[in-house]
Each structure stands twice: as C-alpha cells, then as structure tokens.
C-alpha cells in the first residue's frame, strides 16, 4: 500500500462512514441493512489503513522507544476497534430490526471483558496512539505544531456528537495532508535515485 494513499484514503473512508451513518438514521433508527454494513466496512477499511499510517509515523521517528510503544498501543487499539466494527456487522446480519440488534448487543456486552476491551478502553488506545505519534513528530519538528491540535480536534469533535464524525474526518484529512505530500516527495526522490 502506498503510504501517501493511506494518509488520504483513511480520512476519506471515515468521512464516508460518518455520512452513511447520518443517512442511515434518517428513518429514526440505525441498522440493520445496506447502509449499516457499508458504513461499518468503510470504517474497518480505514482502520486497516491506519496500520500503514502508524508504521510510517514510527519510521519517521526512527523507530525509537517512545514511538515503538505508541505503535504497539495503536495496533492494539486498532485490533479492538476492528473487533467492535466486525461484531456490529455480524449483529446487523443476524438481526431483523434495530430492536433485535439491541438484544444481541446486550448479550455480547454481558460477556466479561468484552465491553471494556471492544467498546471503550480498547478502541480509545487507537486515538491515544494517534495523538501520541503526532505530538512526538511535532516535538521533533517533523510536522507543524498545529498538526497535533487538528488531530486532537478530530478525536474530540465526535465525542460532542457522533453526527460530527464527518467534520472530524475533514479535520483529519487537513492534518494528514502535509504527511501525504511529504511521502509523495520522498517517493519521487527515491525513484530518481534508483532510476
């Protein structure tokens, strides 16, 4: 996967999820159905791209100890968030309506450890690592000082309302754009050297 593409595609996939989520709620409930599944698949794909993004940030930070810790925490968070979205997709397929989905979620979350690992603490590690890596890059002057502020906004805005996920995604795209450009320039230099 081209790293530059990941920095652009991940925010766009989160944007798609946010917009589909809003559209899915037009009838007063969310899921099950095509919109539910499509939106969750979009966010799941974004999570996979974040593996590439985190790996690239880790490399930019010379794979040092702090960056490695952030990378590991981020990967754990991605796995937990991915599990949440996978469960939500399966629940959607197994349910005839939103009420049936609620019953299944209650059963799943009643399993000891599932709620914190898959629905609260675990996914939060993904956002914590994202912010940690970007702050580390800013401290080392590898990105502009405003980038961590934008990443923090991207994390906080959906906490106000999940309907603001598209706004957070646009903020994330603006934050990641310089890194996408940097990777494109780096790739061009690498091509010239090996031409």
Question: Which bin fits the share of residues in helices?
Answer: over 70%
User: What is the count of DSSP helices, taking H or I runs of 4+ residues?
Assistant: 8
Q: Structural class of the secondary structure composition?
A: mainly alpha
Number of strands: 0
Keywords: Membrane, Transmembrane, Transmembrane helix
Transmembrane segments: 35-54, 66-96, 116-139, 151-177
How would you describe this structure in keywords?
0% strand; single chain; mainly alpha; disordered C terminus; globular; 195 residues; 8 helices
Summarize the structure.
Keywords: Membrane, Transmembrane, Transmembrane helix. The protein has 195 residues and is mainly alpha-helical. It has helices at 3-24, 34-60, 65-94, 98-109, 114-119, 121-139, 146-160, 165-193.
Question: Layout of SSEs?
Answer:
Layout: H1 3-24, H2 34-60, H3 65-94, H4 98-109, H5 114-119, H6 121-139, H7 146-160, H8 165-193
Helix pairs in contact: 1-2, 1-8, 2-3, 2-6, 3-4, 3-6, 6-7, 7-8
Textual characterization of the structure:
The chain has helices at residues 3-24, 34-60, 65-94, 98-109, 114-119, 121-139, 146-160, 165-193. It has 195 residues and is an all-alpha fold. The longest helix is centred in the middle third of the chain and has 30 residues, at 65-94. The chain is 82% helix and 0% strand. Mean pLDDT is 93; it is low at 190-194. The radius of gyration is 18 Å and the shape is globular. The chain has one domain (3-193). It starts with a helix and ends with a helix. The chain crosses the membrane at residues 35-54, 66-96, 116-139, 151-177. Keywords: Membrane, Transmembrane, Transmembrane helix.
